[in-house]
Amino acid sequence: MLKKVALSLFLVITLAVIAVLSIAATRPATYHVERSQSMGATPEVVFAVVNDLHRFREWSPWQKLDPAMKVTFEGPSSGVGASYSWVGNDQVGEGRMTTTDATPPGSLTQKLEFLKPFKSECMVHFTIAPENDGSRVTWAIDGNNNYVSKVMCLFVSMDSMMGKDFVSGLANLKQVAEAEPPPAAPGTQASASGMSAPAKP
Questions:
Q1: pLDDT exceeds 90 at position 193
Q2: Fold of 24-179
Q3: Distance, CA of 185 to CA of 181 (rounded, Å)
């Protein structure tokens, strides 16, 4: 009797696994996630913050998941070739992001490489457009769904999983960018008192 029950249970589990794997195979080969946020800072100011990888921890939605994560930088602090690597706990894993294109003040592209807990690569895009007296910032990510990702997407969508982090990160970026001093007007220079003065010829 117990053997029959065990065999029936084994068959049910096997059929369920086969069904999940079969359905997963039909999932899209790529994914795209994006979120946008209006900010009361000019595109130039927002771009300067996003472009400087040394400032990423100021607005990263993942920093609070492991405040003790180890971070290293390579290349310039901003612009093409700037690289940010991290090693953290199970929640943040290990990876690296590298700026591959920087076109001020409207767009920035980064290659994002996840090394742990699983390996994958994707591209991250920031689009910064003028909006009224400020900006509208769009944070997007594009990548390929391997078989593991396809199985995961049956239980939780990539959009809902990453979208909430993008919303949180953009809210952080809004606070940081809006707290930045406005750029000096052309033809002026900052005085010792912090006031702008006409630049000397």
A1: no
A2: Alpha-D-Glucose-1,6-Bisphosphate; Chain A, domain 4 (3.30.530)
A3: 12
